[in-house]
Amino acid sequence: MHCPFCRHPDSRVVDSRTSDDGSSIRRRRQCPSCHRRFTTVETASLSVVKRSGATEPFSREKIANGVRKACQGRPVSEDDLALLAQKVEESLRTSGSAEIDAYEIGLAILGPLRELDEVAYLRFASVYQAFDSLEDFETAISGLRAEHRASRAGEDDAPAGTASSGV
């Protein structure tokens, strides 16, 4: 790392800390030549490989914009969209790969979007997974209904804290 003051080609790391969301590292450095200190911020780059083969930097804003269309007219706030984009980025970064296929990003969006709003999930899935018949919608809706039944059955099986023993 070149010193920004004297352009010396080396520097010494004095302190390292992870930043706000843990996606970058803030380092305090000192130049061995002029002894001045400066800060660098290091981030691991995440690239998206598009269908055409072109690559571009990952963008949370593009995630939010794509999902915003599916959420149009739904009770979803901008904060919800920002949080969803953050969750998607975090899940992609845990894969450990520096290049992510655009299709994988779409798959990573589906889970958090289903938790956020099921109607928006169906809208997004219908475009992303190229639904081409009513059966595709019916299958997706049946899956959501089965999840609802399973979650309700789990709630019904839970012990009620105020039930009498009948003795």
Task: Offer a concise description of the structure.
The protein is an alpha+beta fold and 167 residues long. It has 5 helices and 6 strands.
Report Rg.
Answer: 24 Å
Distance between the termini: 77 Å
Q: Can you summarize the main beta sheet?
A: 3 strands, antiparallel
Low-confidence parts lasting 5 or more residues at pLDDT below 50?
161-167
> Helix amount, in percent?
40-55%
Provide the spatial order of strands within the biggest beta sheet: 1-2-3
**Residues in β-strands, percent:** 15-25%
Class based on secondary structure composition and strand pairing:
alpha+beta
Shape: elongated
The count of strands amounts to 6
Mean pLDDT, nearest integer?
86
Determine the number of helices (DSSP H or I, runs of at least 4 residues). Answer: 5
Q: N-to-C SSE series?
A: EEEEEHHEHHH
Write a structural description:
A zinc finger (unnamed) spans 3-34. This is Transcriptional repressor NrdR. Residues 46-136 form the ATP-cone domain. By secondary structure, the protein is α+β, with helices and mostly antiparallel strands. It is 46% helix and 18% strand. The chain has five helices and six strands; from the N terminus they run βββββααβααα. The strands form two sheets. Strands 1-2-3 form a three-stranded antiparallel sheet, with no helix packed on it. A three-stranded mixed sheet has the order 5-4-6. Helix 1 (60-70) packs across helix 2. The radius of gyration is 24 Å and the shape is elongated. It starts with 11 loop residues before the first strand and ends in a 10-residue tail after the last helix. The model is unreliable at 161-167 (pLDDT under 50).
